[in-house]
Queue: 4 jobs
Job 1
Amino acid sequence: MINSNKNPQVKNLMLLQKKSKVRKEQGVFIVEGIKIVMETSFERLEKIYISESFSKIDEYRGFLESLKYEILSDSIFATVADTVTPQGILAIVKRNIYSVEKIITDKTKIAHILVLESLQDPGNVGTIIRTAEAAGVTGIIVNDETVDIYNPKVIRSTMGAIYRVPIVYSDNLSDDILKLKREGIKVYAAHLKGENAYYEENYRQGTAFIIGNEGKGLSKEIADLADCYVKIPMCGEVESLNAAVASSLLMYETMVQRLKG
Amino acid sequence: MINSNKNPQVKNLMLLQKKSKVRKEQGVFIVEGIKIVMETSFERLEKIYISESFSKIDEYRGFLESLKYEILSDSIFATVADTVTPQGILAIVKRNIYSVEKIITDKTKIAHILVLESLQDPGNVGTIIRTAEAAGVTGIIVNDETVDIYNPKVIRSTMGAIYRVPIVYSDNLSDDILKLKREGIKVYAAHLKGENAYYEENYRQGTAFIIGNEGKGLSKEIADLADCYVKIPMCGEVESLNAAVASSLLMYETMVQRLKG
């Protein structure tokens, strides 16, 4: 059992929880909690850590017998966990590397893509990834200024969808949007200047939606690349919707149009 | 200028930020930031507090001239503010008291009501209130076990909608749902057992949606009161949507149906 915070593995876990750069260098991220650890595929699993108390829970004995893991004292586990009341199990998991090409060349699915520009709130981004899986999104492209999708709060908000939705980190968002357009994917931006309401467009063919930063919206450079602006009507004095809510309305409109045929 | 945390007003502000019970007893809540303070109506305003630094900002001099306020030293202001980087202005504001009767007897609007049972996440509840205003919701009913809607995090997430959406605290949620039904309002519950998808129902007449707790969903007692269950279709392995996302889809479906006529 590890019970020192000077242990190199413990130090590394703390860095992985806090530093986006360290996660990127090692090509991994951390998942916490029994449910998501059980959903992890063996090929992606690097290492499991459990707390001493967790190792004594009868219910998980069978599950633990088939795995290799490291036991941390409860106080050390609490130090490395990101949650306030940790369940006592976490894992280091390898990232999947996707490219825009890989997403758009999957011809078995009609493209349904989300492009996120500089979103900052981890809860919003996690919720968008969770909803994206539910709405059948075929890929998400995020720029460098978007909050790290491997941030523990993002991971938690995805409720496991982080494993299942292809997500691409874009070095050049403009270039990647142009790649979508060259494939015949129609690019929409949610924008207050939209002429049509979002439900008046047809999303049955390849479709991508660009979503901008929570406070500032889309940059002009990126907004200019859209084929079409759509607006989400709003009553009252509301100036904008939450970014996760706006994205969800667009994704579900697309899903429902395709379901209806 | 107040510069002691033993000052009774400072003590009261700290209690109001932290204790739902104290907010309730005094019938008030706190709003923070220049934008929401400026949106506050005089009839609801109890008192404004600003930081010493804020009092010196030229831009707000005109605004401050027309008001009475108390100046707190910057360090005391930071103590009473809920935000990490406070703008330097907050206000104590009176609550509006609504009743179910008041909401449903407004015959100028077709009822579009949201019933929240035991929602726990302040960000979710705030986002729901914000989206509700945008979607033209005519009232929200929440039970006692729902997170306090006057919690500072809820207020912040509403982006001002807390002032504009009628919200009723229900002592007896079952009774209040029955009152809606007696008025001819059709009560829907978002439920995995729903037979029809949410977009297959007609919400042009008086409509209410019941939304359950993030983890546990609706209690059987409340779910049984619904006239109809609707499901939100989901691809992939997602088990449920975020509560704010699910509510938003239902509210916007209602709004869009009514806009289309």
Job 2
Amino acid sequence: MQEISSQDNGRLKAFAALCREKRERDRNGSVILDGVKICRDAVSSGHRVRQLWITEEAQEKYSRDIPELITASDEVFVIKGSAARKLSELVTPQGVFAEVERPAWTEPAELASGSRILGLCGVQNPENVGSSIRTAAALGYSAVLLSSDCADVWSPRTVRAAAGTQLSCRIASTRDFAGSVRELANAGVLTCASALHSDSVYVSDVPRDRKIFLAVGSEGSGLPDDVTEACEIRIRIPMSGSAESLNAAAAAAVMMWELRDESLLK
Amino acid sequence: MQEISSQDNGRLKAFAALCREKRERDRNGSVILDGVKICRDAVSSGHRVRQLWITEEAQEKYSRDIPELITASDEVFVIKGSAARKLSELVTPQGVFAEVERPAWTEPAELASGSRILGLCGVQNPENVGSSIRTAAALGYSAVLLSSDCADVWSPRTVRAAAGTQLSCRIASTRDFAGSVRELANAGVLTCASALHSDSVYVSDVPRDRKIFLAVGSEGSGLPDDVTEACEIRIRIPMSGSAESLNAAAAAAVMMWELRDESLLK
């Protein structure tokens, strides 16, 4: 355990760069966890912590949780004073930060092993991406396919919104989302596009006798045409008025719930 | 129409205070709308704009939308240069801002006139409050009851997350949430508490033969005990594992959808 009190310390600067710069995280294959619960959940599910950073205040405040985190960490740093402010985007961070190894991407071809798969195409808001991954994990969706123009799934904002569930979910990324949809269809999966088209069927009328892939687009522009066309059916949520709409993460949650595999939930 | 180019202009300073300070908004009974779509939606649904502020760039970029906004506004200000930066919390604001009059609160006793009512108790995150109001509006919930310790429903963050739907939804606020629940129960409404208790019934098993009130608590601590006890039944969403959980707004969306009044949706 090393104590660090200077903002100019080299290790602190290097860790702050990991927290703040996508390029650094990508180069090191890192996920940064910010907060005691998210760190504890990662450790409980078997993730090794490369480096753990805790403030003196957090060491005292979370004294019940810290020993388990320390045991699971290769290196531990205790930060004194205000040096922790460099590490978090939050106004009032808890003062507990961990770097864990990023899980390998899942190949799009391997997605069809589970009975329910979520796809996010062009969803650029990190909170919507993170919240949708969290909902997928909670509702028994075994994998999430992301188009390469979605928000960075490993950014601190996305990790926070997902409550770290991208560490335990299978995540695939593709530059050819429509091509991946066709592969899933070829594997016998019912591919559904969330779309406000006039020929869209109500989400409650979708048959449940096959595996299901649900594609959701961005809130502003929806799914690209080639993705909507690659999907076998277009589905929508009935609403109370034509001017009404749902937030992307709320719409994804309602659809994932309605299309759930009940045998997986309890 | 007045052109303003100085950051020191008195009207600009007064409007910036409205945008940034809850106390100013409360004193003036104001709602600040930030963005062209949210302003347009408010005007389309009949709201009068007290003052409209647009940047020179926005005037050009949104030239199709601006005339309708100007017609609905008592006063119009065009801002030149960087003076607009004082008005928005956003990194890249669109440069279209409107002050509209805050609708009157609905009395808690009047909530039972609709068939579906949402209650948020102690939800302190403005995005969760806003997103839940938006979902309620889209899924035919006629009113929303907020405990007085919820996030400020009229803050720019909450208004943005709700896409301005709090202007058209009936909103009630109470210091005695459990008391309001009992009043609804006395009026014949089935009162449901979202709770992860062992005796909670699955949300899909809730009977639909009466009006329904759904109470949702904060993500961290759930509903207070007195509210859970005041409700007739406790309900929960089945999930894939005991460690999994949903974001408060996603959980509220799934429950609102599952408890919807189908006759109101199309």
Job 3
Amino acid sequence: MFKLYYAPGTCALASHIALEEAGAPYTTEKLDFKSNQQNSPEYLKVNPKGRVPAMVTERGVLTETPAMLAFIAQRFPQAKLAPLDDAYAFAEVQAFNSYLCSTVHVAHAHKMRGARWATDEASFVDMKRMIPKTVGATFALIEHDMLRGPWVMGDTYTICDPYLYTLGLWLEGDSVDVSTLPKVLAHRRHMEQRPAVQKVLAEEKR
Amino acid sequence: MFKLYYAPGTCALASHIALEEAGAPYTTEKLDFKSNQQNSPEYLKVNPKGRVPAMVTERGVLTETPAMLAFIAQRFPQAKLAPLDDAYAFAEVQAFNSYLCSTVHVAHAHKMRGARWATDEASFVDMKRMIPKTVGATFALIEHDMLRGPWVMGDTYTICDPYLYTLGLWLEGDSVDVSTLPKVLAHRRHMEQRPAVQKVLAEEKR
């Protein structure tokens, strides 16, 4: 039985959906970011990084969304969430997810988490002003060069899909003009028709 | 035969070392960042992101260091560069590499690449001032919570090691007090005793 630590509105949603799609045995624990619970002494024992997601397994705690997604795919191969028998195809999946974590998520983080990299209020204002452009540029690359459709890797649903869906939910809040991203929006609609996605969204809203 | 695009002093060194350790058949092509060759029309056809590394394979182009490192480990299993038969241990390797790409490398990038996320000169100055602290904090976590020693994962050398080594080479330039990082420095010395590392360093200097 796994235990997933998450907070609503965060990238932990991707792993939450993947666990559900995999039919994995898991429970969840919601952290309250408003009271900074991710930096409480109790949680820092689980994840010294003070972030979500983190997942307790029978062997230890896993963090980092791309690693967790690949782990879920490998541990539950019958769910066919990644091309496990094809190193090149698996690398394409991983490259997509790595781009999401190191470039797309990082671009978005400069809206509210500027204090990770700067100290002056004027710098935060500068960073926030850039958000529609910087986040928009990452999604433009996804729209034009990466998202094959209907799923990220084409006809087959993979661990790329819940991750793209999750970060794509931030687009409107980041003031990106989503009318320029028809494939990304179609992908979102396809995702929201999946029972696993509907179930997880309802649970995170509770 | 693979072809690795790299530039000296970049994170492409990690994949370069891994290819050498794996005994993979490969050639290299050096890009000149001073003339902005990574954004030339020719190179953007190889990698629309305008970054290194990129690796041409018989099936297509791979990017993103964590994905490339796992691919090299999977394609050349006899080199034993990752625990391929143990999903949890493989996830630990991936979580470490994901932390390097999305947090450690990103922290460092705010020194010279602030224009990715801001526009004002004052913001760049602010970001640069934070570098010793932000990069230092990521390596303090590695030193105390992640690097098992002598290799990242303990007794066994993996694809985490060339990646940590590569980003660790930036510490002095980032004005991090490396005397607080004895395990990281010992890891660097171990790496520099490996013939594959010596060969690749010599080639990148040419």
Job 4
Amino acid sequence: MTPANFSPVPLDKSYRLLNHGPTVLVSARHGGVTDVMAAAWACVLDYGQTPRVTVVLDKATHTRELIETSGAFALQLPTRAQLALTVGVGTDSLHTMPDKLMRHGVQLFEAPVGDVPLVAGCVGWLACRLRPEPHNQQAYDLFIGDVVGAWANEQVFRTGRWQFDTAPDDLRTIHHVAGGQFFVTGAAVQA
Amino acid sequence: MTPANFSPVPLDKSYRLLNHGPTVLVSARHGGVTDVMAAAWACVLDYGQTPRVTVVLDKATHTRELIETSGAFALQLPTRAQLALTVGVGTDSLHTMPDKLMRHGVQLFEAPVGDVPLVAGCVGWLACRLRPEPHNQQAYDLFIGDVVGAWANEQVFRTGRWQFDTAPDDLRTIHHVAGGQFFVTGAAVQA
């Protein structure tokens, strides 16, 4: 069941979910196994008719293996309310903690397109198809995805724009620096 | 002359300048020509002993040409006080506006290492050597740089950490969404 306020974002506007550089959760599934990890190193690569993203995935992560075999993943934006969850899934590995997702309170639901599980409580989601680039993956741990579906919590993102200033503070996105220190996305300003 | 409060950042901590996903200015120089552009699509690629960054540079930009010929560039973090400058250098091209930098009030100084000009008034700087990857550059406009020098304004970044909460608000970094709308880097929170 999709969460309340889950609303589609047109693909040509989907870059706006990630453009401000928040930390993301990366989810993937293969053969009945699902994993979720945190990544601060995710970025828009292209927009318009060919929305694409990059994300750096360490070779030690189980999520990376699932992506390499399934060819699908999702990036999603956790909130200030999900700080502990974000650090938890970014620290513990499914390799050594099989019940990692349950322990960190991760609740999943199915993406409407993309054949990938999404994390409830986030405020933006990008379902991606892996664009295989073996050299980048091996040499740099760098993965490229074509965005095939995008959604947002319409309390904080609607008509193509973030609306943090009129929503609860707990729904703001977060930006990791190091060692569990984050910045919350701050005030909107117009040039 | 380097600006006041310009202070070196150890290379193994340099990723912390970019980890929270701010919008950057990209500077480069070749044959006596200097250009500066804005880029929201810049990201950490690696840290520790091999600090690296990615940045997406459209084929239409003059800055990209300068980087391809010189093999050097810098990423630097503009502040809330530099919103207009950031949008200005991100909108106008040196191709059609030869005095672009002067018009937008860009003041430059020389990086201590890296043979690249830096933009005054920013709060973090990463001097990079281009790591040629022709396929990425052609197919995705994606450029990889090895970080060879890093500096920060010690009013806002010292002992390896951002200290926005104790500095003037005008020195906060900024995160572009679209159409000149930015978010300021907000409150620090610890998981």
